[in-house]
Amino acid sequence: MSNLELPFRSLAAVITGTSVLLIMNIVSVIGNILVCLAVYRNPNLRSTTNLYIIALAVSDLICATVEMPLTSAVFIIGKWDFGDALCQIQGFVDLFASYVTPATMTLTAFNRYMRIVKTNHYNRVFSSLRSKIWLSCVWLFLFLYLLVGRLTGWNKFQFIPGYAVCSIAFVKNENRIIHYFLMFGILFVLPLSVGCFSYCKVFTKIKQHQQNVASSLQNASNGIGRISAKEINISRALGYVAAGFLFCWIPHWVFAFWKRFSPDTSPRITELLVTILLFMSATINPVIYATTNPHFRKEFVKLLCWCNKKVIQPTEGRSSGEQ
C-alpha cells in the first residue's frame, strides 16, 4: 500500500465516514457564515466579546472550506490525489486552525472573567483596540511559529493515511517531542486552566447576582447589579462553547498523543477520531449560539427567512408570467 493511500475499508465504512464528514462540512460552513453575517448585520452584536466569537467562526470557516472538503474527497477515493502543493496548504491550515481555536478560547474566557468579575478594569484591558491587538498578536505568533518551522526544516507537512489529512511530521524525534509538549502546554493545559478558573469565577459571580436580585432590586453600590441580563446570556452561551471545546479536545489530544508516541498500539479508529473531533469542534459552535443565545438566534432566523424569500420570489415571478 502506498503512503498516499488509505487502509482498506468496507463499503459501509466509506459511506458512513463520508456522510459524517460531509454533514459536518455543510453545517460548519453554513453555521459559521451565519455567525459572521449576524454580527455584520446587527450593530448591537459588535461587542469586544463577540470579536472573539467572530474569530472562532473565521478559524472554523478556514477549516471547513480548506480542510474538510479535501478530507471528504480523500475518504471517497481512498487516497491523496491532489499533489504536494495542496498537501502543504492543507497541512498548514490543519495546524493553524487547530492552534488558533484553543488560543482564542483562552482569550474569550479571560474576557468573560474581566467583564463579569473585574468589571472596573474591563475597559482598560479589553477596550475595542486592545481586544483586536490581543487577538492579532496571538494569531500572528501561531502563524509565524508554523511558517518559520516549515521554512527552517524544523517540521514538514505530509499526508498521513490514518488521519486522512495532510498534517505535521518531523525529521527528528527530538523535534516532535519538543513541539508536542510545547503545544500541549500552551494550547491545552493553559486554555483548560484559564477556562476552568475564569468560568468558575464568572458563574459564581452570576449566582451571587441572581441571589441579590431575588432578595431586592439590583444594588448598584455593591457592583453585582452592574451585570446585565445580556452579559449573563453571553457568559452562559460561552460557557457551553467552552464545554463543547473540552468535549472535543480532551479526547482529541489523548488520541493524538497515543498515535504520535505509540503508533504500533494505536488502532485505526483512534486516528480517524482525531480528525473527526477536530471537525466537530469547528461545527458545534454555531449550534450552541443558536440554542443558547437569543440575540444570535433571532439574527439566524432573520437571515434564513431572508434567504428563503430570495429563493421563492423569482419562482413566483416566473409562475405569474406564464399564466
Automatic annotation (TrEMBL):
Compartments, record wording:
Membrane
Domain G-protein coupled receptors family 1 profile: residue ranges: 31-289
| One GO CC term on file | membrane
Q: Which SMART domains match?
A: 7TM_GPCR_Srsx
Q: What is its main location?
A: membrane
Looking up InterPro entries in the UniProt record yields: GPCR_opsins, GPCR_Rhodpsn, GPCR_Rhodpsn_7TM
What keywords appear on the UniProt entry?
Answer: G-protein coupled receptor, Membrane, Receptor, Transducer, Transmembrane, Transmembrane helix
MF-aspect GO terms: G protein-coupled receptor activity
Bilayer-spanning residue ranges? 12-40, 52-77, 89-110, 131-148, 177-200, 237-258, 270-290
Membrane topology, record value: Multi-pass membrane protein
Q: State one Pfam family annotation.
A: 7tm_1
Q: Which CDD domains match?
A: 7tm_classA_rhodopsin-like (cd00637)
Q: Which PANTHER family match?
A: OPSIN (PTHR24240)
What is the protein named? G-protein coupled receptors family 1 profile domain-containing protein
Organism the protein comes from? Pocillopora meandrina
